[in-house]
Amino acid sequence: MKIAQLLKFEPILKDKIWGGEKLMTLLHKKSDRKDIGESWEISDVEGDTSVVATGNLKGKNLKELIQEYKGDLVGEKMYQQFGEKFPLLIKFIDAKEALSIQLHPNDALAKERHNSFGKTEMWYVMQADEKANLIVGFQKDVTSEEYLQHLRNKSLTEILNIDEVQEGDVYFIPTGRVHAIGAGVLLAEIQQTSDITYRIYDWDRKDAAGNYRDLHTEEAVEAIDYKAEDSYKTMYEKVKNEASTIVSCPYFTTNIISLKASASIAINHSEKDSFVIYMCVAGSAIFVHNTQTERLEKGETLLLPACVKNIKITSDSITELLEVFIK
């Protein structure tokens, strides 16, 4: 039997030393805590597997679905490549304070050191306070020696690229690129399924128990990309009521669908051999497949199994959706 239905999962909320309340106040996640930093929307990370929230599969987890439905859920080629491991981790992140300055190892290094995937990722800024910023990459090429000297002198930000950001900004973060989300930024993150992070500087802050968090100075040196780019922001164009590509890499493709109020579009995924994920980053939309209807509000995520090829999306306000799949 095919898994021909739209899937919503229970968000997995993560309290963080730098987290805040926007996931609750702006995206309507349910928590009384004031330090929720991440909502894991679709996850197959060990110990944090997403569970279906609605419908006749309610209570089943993502791992069980892949085991039962295989290529019908993820795509035949995806199943051959990744087996029973879902290849992407989908999150919303609220930084009340700046995250640590960090980077992620590439596939080869992550496999060798951690028996894990690397972690290529992208950010879509959903909301940013005035003068809020992101750290992405270096201002100019540096050597590992220069980097270590600045790290020891606590002057690392002098050589890093810092961009003020606003809603709609997109940043692609390949493995090895030094980065940090600044205070006051709410964003959607799409990444490889991996929780391997090398933390290189954490602003000398202590946790609730008065301890510093671990740093990964030695591991990071070999993993860092020391070359600089002219610009780190991803430029893209929106076409009303159509899907426009904003990021495409071997690990995922992300399109943006910008819908006018009261728009209705039909989408055919027959050329894809992949699941498709929709993240609502503004407004709200109604998804229809056969007799099933699912409303997606801002801050919600939907998974279309690979065997679902035709859907209709209707907006009742100006709406923006991220559409994610693997080519």
Question: What fraction of the residues are assigned to beta strands by DSSP?
Answer: 35-45%
CATH A-level architecture of the largest domain: Sandwich
Counting DSSP E segments of at least 2 residues, the number of strands comes to 22
- List the secondary-structure elements in sequence, H or E: EHEEEHHHEEHEEHEEEEEHEEEEEEEEE
Enumerate how many helices there are, as a single number. Answer: 7
What oligomeric state do the depicted chains represent? single chain
**Any idea what the radius of gyration is?**
20 Å
Strands across the major sheet, in which order?
Answer: 1-2-5-12-7-10
Report on this structure.
This protein is mostly beta strands and 327 residues long. The protein folds into 2 domains: 12-223, Jelly Rolls (Sandwich); 243-325, Sandwich (Jelly Rolls), CATH 2.60.120. Helices cover 14% and strands 38% of the residues. It contains 7 helices and 22 strands. The protein has helices at 22-25, 62-69, 71-74, 76-82, 107-114, 144-152, 217-223, and strands at 12-20, 36-42, 44-45, 48-49, 88-95, 101-103, 121-128, 133-138, 160-164, 170-173, 179-181, 185-192, 198-201, 243-248, 253-259, 264-268, 276-282, 284-289, 292-297, 301-304, 310-315, 319-325. The protein has a 6-stranded antiparallel sheet with strand order 1-2-5-12-7-10. The protein has a 5-stranded antiparallel sheet with strand order 14-15-22-17-20, with no helix packed on it. A 4-stranded antiparallel sheet has the order 16-21-18-19, with no helix packed on it. A hairpin with a 2-residue loop joins strand 18 (284-289) and strand 19.
